[in-house]
């Protein structure tokens, strides 16, 4: 038998459905996809996790309406990654444009999976990106890259 006070508590408790998680507008889906992309990219989570049954169950529990719109790993990798990159580039450039004085770039040298020093690749990429505005930059630092060539 149930305790009568427990029954009254259940009547007063708020369920997730009472918070509006059963409906997800198009704008909310776009915002949630963007934030999901930021989470995956910043935490270096493999894209395939978005299709993992446990991740899907977790999202379904949090927001059933969004679970229906959960992007595939290919959508995450292609369009959402592009959206996050563009937004990050815009906000970073806006912050840098408001930075007084010259900017300092730092590159950290390391090797890739085949043992090639990636600092060279990064330095060349950065140089190509800034060569037309090089007067804005003070220095490009390479941290401990000498050990990469031993």
Tell me about the biggest sheet? 2 strands, parallel
Low-confidence stretches: none
Q: How much is the radius of gyration in Å?
A: 24 Å
Strand neighbour order, sheet with most strands = 1-2
Topology pattern, helix = H, strand = E: HHHHHEHE
Strand content: 5-15%
Approximate shape: elongated
What attributes characterize this protein structure?
150 residues; mainly alpha; two-stranded parallel ribbon
Detail the topology: elements first, then pairings.
Elements: H1 4-12, H2 26-42, H3 53-62, H4 64-67, H5 73-97, E1 103-108, H6 118-130, E2 137-143
Parallel strand pairs: 1-2
Helix pairs in contact: 2-5
Outline:
With 150 residues, this protein is mainly α. The protein is 52% helix and 9% strand. The protein contains 6 helices and 2 strands, in the order αααααβαβ.
Give an overview in words.
It is a single chain. With 150 residues, this protein is mostly helical. It has 6 helices and 2 strands. Strands 1-2 form a two-stranded parallel ribbon. The longest helix is centred in the middle third of the chain and has 25 residues, at 73-97.
């Amino acid at each position: 038998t149930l305790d009568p006070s427990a029954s009254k508590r259940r009547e007063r408790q708020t369920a997730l459905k009472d918070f509006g998680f059963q409906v997800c507008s198009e704008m909310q889906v776009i915002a949630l996809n963007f934030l999901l992309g930021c989470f995956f990219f910043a935490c270096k989570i493999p894209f395939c996790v978005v299709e993992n049954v446990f991740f899907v169950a977790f999202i379904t529990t949090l927001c059933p309406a969004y679970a229906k719109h959960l992007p595939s790993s290919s959508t995450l990798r292609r369009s959402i990654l592009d959206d996050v990159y563009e937004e990050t580039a815009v906000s970073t450039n806006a912050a840098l444009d408001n930075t007084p004085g010259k900017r300092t770039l730092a590159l950290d040298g390391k090797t890739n999976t085949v043992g090639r020093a990636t600092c060279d690749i990064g330095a060349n990429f950065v140089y190509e990106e800034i060569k037309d505005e090089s007067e804005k930059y003070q220095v490009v630092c390479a941290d401990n890259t000498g050990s990469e060539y031993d």
